[in-house]
């Protein structure tokens, strides 16, 4: 079982750092799944039990100048590691101006992802920084828990307004209630609502557009599907987001689930937030 990769392009390194930082804001631990073509960061809490889930997919060719891996066996050519993304994020932030960054799976006092960077210097003496980020190797028998989640059988799918705009609204609403209702329809309309004994507040969005999924259903385009959410879950997602997606959308399973999708040319991030009663 081997893994090594090298990033030379500083723009790729900074983009990789932003993705890891986003993930670190969403979860304390996650699974890093390495395959010959992709890296996946996976959080697999049981949504049915009130937990959130995450699936972030990166194409290695868009980040790494060199990338080599050997999985557990030729038939099971992948590696699954449990990692604390905050540790990885801190290490990456110290090497953002590196001339090159090498990542390698190593065995020190425990399995580690070792980051080695050549930093720029004003003298002829090179300056190198190394970080060892501890990881746990996940055995093959548990891999089935970390497969790509199925697209939910949603009632409404809609493009989101600018995430910064949503964040500003949610930040204000959090001061008034612990819960928020997000509702949307297939006519490009979305509302964010809070209702308490003392106050009722709604923010309306129109003309957002709906993704062209062709699922063969004949839904009423004006009918609202809604999800009542713990506002802290949504705020956590919006606060940590640094991927700068080219498209952002959400799918709603009425009274059950909010499925958020951020799409970048070389990154996709899915985040699942269950509803609360």
Structure, described:
- It holds the Pfam family Hus1.
- One of its GO terms (biological process) is mitotic DNA replication checkpoint signaling.
- Helices cover 17% and strands 41% of the residues.
- The protein has 277 residues and is of the alpha+beta class.
- It has two domains: 2-146, Box (Proliferating Cell Nuclear Antigen), CATH 3.70.10; 156-274, Proliferating Cell Nuclear Antigen (Box).
- Helix 1 (10-26) packs antiparallel against helix 2 (85-93).
- The relative contact order is 0.16.
- The model has no long low-confidence stretch (mean pLDDT 90).
Task: Summarize the topology.
Layout: E1 2-7, H1 10-26, E2 30-34, E3 38-44, E4 53-59, E5 66-70, E6 79-83, H2 85-93, E7 100-107, E8 111-119, E9 127-137, E10 156-159, H3 163-174, E11 179-184, E12 190-195, E13 200-205, E14 225-230, H4 231-240, E15 247-253, E16 257-263, E17 267-274
Antiparallel strand pairs: 1-5, 1-7, 2-3, 2-6, 3-4, 4-17, 6-9, 7-8, 8-9, 10-15, 11-12, 11-14, 12-13, 15-16, 16-17
